[in-house]
Specification:
3 helices
Length: 54
């Protein structure tokens, strides 16, 4: 399976930031998690750690 196909946008810090802001708006600070942000961009949470160290 390819890492990135035509239907999945690349994981960039900007894309992750936008996804996190959508989760914050929808679920609030208590609902923000790596798992929810990952789901928002269509990947598993472990994939995000490559892009976000802390």
């Amino acid at each position: 399976m390819p890492d990135n196909d035509d239907t999945t946008p690349p994981l960039t810090r900007e894309a992750l930031t936008r996804a996190a802001l959508r989760v914050l708006e929808r679920d609030g600070l208590a609902g923000l998690s790596m798992r929810k942000v990952a789901s928002e961009v269509g990947v598993k949470a472990a994939s995000l750690y490559w892009h976000v160290r802390n």
